Amino acid sequence: PLALALTGVVRRYSQGQGAIEVLRGADLAISHGQSVALVAPSGSGKSTLLHIAGLLEQSDAGEVFIDGIPTARLGDGERTRIRRLSIGFIYQFHHLLPELSAVENVSMPQMIRGLSRKEADARAKDLLTYLGLGARLTHRPSELSGGEQQRVAIARALANAPRLLLADEPTGNLDPKTSDHVFGALTELVRATGVAALIATHNLELASRMDRRVTLREGKVVELA
Ligand code: ADP
Ligand code: ADP
């Protein structure tokens, strides 16, 4: 099955007296191991699309298949289970827990899934070392640079070996050079793990390094060259 398939996804929000239809029958298919950049202006519905693909938000119509499983009619419990099992998220701001070290931030989602601390720490250290943070394992987020914090967030998102990685402007708050570095590490890890990825970015240079580029036009997903 495809890692992610959206078919005919509709999402409207009420605003004042009226409503706006942000997604108007959006279709998108991403196979395993494929990386897709979502490049579209602010307000076009990128976050909405990512939230729906990540089962954080319900669509008003259409279907969302994760690894072939239709999710639109599932209850919250099942959706949360699939999200935890199959999907990793990276945000513009890292949302790391300030009291925990880099390793602990990455171990935590694995321990929630039932791994022992020992197993979880071992995988966390591997991932962080791969991302060039081998000398920062016991540092807390406040002791790390912005780029390092975001690399910890990348390790955390991939800690549970998700089938699908969703990222909303993952390097949006970093300076161009750091952004380039972090994006490089991210795309390398996406390749190495074979995870399917949908990454919203404003940066066309970064988008050009991914397998496909799509945009949103009038609530539909449109393939770019
Ligand atoms: P993007 O991520 O591309 O900037 P969003 O998905 O955040 O776009 O938003 C798309 C449109 O939907 C915007 O006009 C935004 O104001 C509107 N919108 C998003 N979330 C809500 C909400 N919870 N309630 C009302 N309108 C919303
Ligand atoms: P937790 O395991 O902390 O209870 P969930 O299972 O609800 O979290 O969510 C799994 C992932 O989705 C986590 O990475 C969490 O940060 C993220 N998440 C949950 N709710 C939202 C939301 N409303 N917007 C963005 N991300 C969310």
From TrEMBL:
One Gene Ontology molecular-function label: ATP binding
GO cellular component, one term: plasma membrane
Domain of life of the native organism: Bacteria
Family matches, as PANTHER family: IMPORT ATP-BINDING PROTEIN, LIPOPROTEIN-RELEASING SYSTEM ATP-BINDING PROTEIN LOLD
Stated name of the protein: ABC transporter ATP-binding protein
Keywords: ATP-binding, Cell inner membrane, Cell membrane, Membrane, Nucleotide-binding, Translocase, Transport
Keyword Cell membrane listed: yes
Annotated InterPro entries: AAA+_ATPase, ABC_transporter-like_ATP-bd, ABC_transporter-like_CS, ABC_transpr_LolD-like, MacB-like_ATP-bd, P-loop_NTPase
Organism name: Xanthobacter dioxanivorans
Gene3D superfamilies: P-loop containing nucleotide triphosphate hydrolases
Boundaries of every ABC transporter domain copy: 4-224
Family membership: Belongs to the ABC transporter superfamily. Macrolide exporter (TC 3.A.1.122) family.
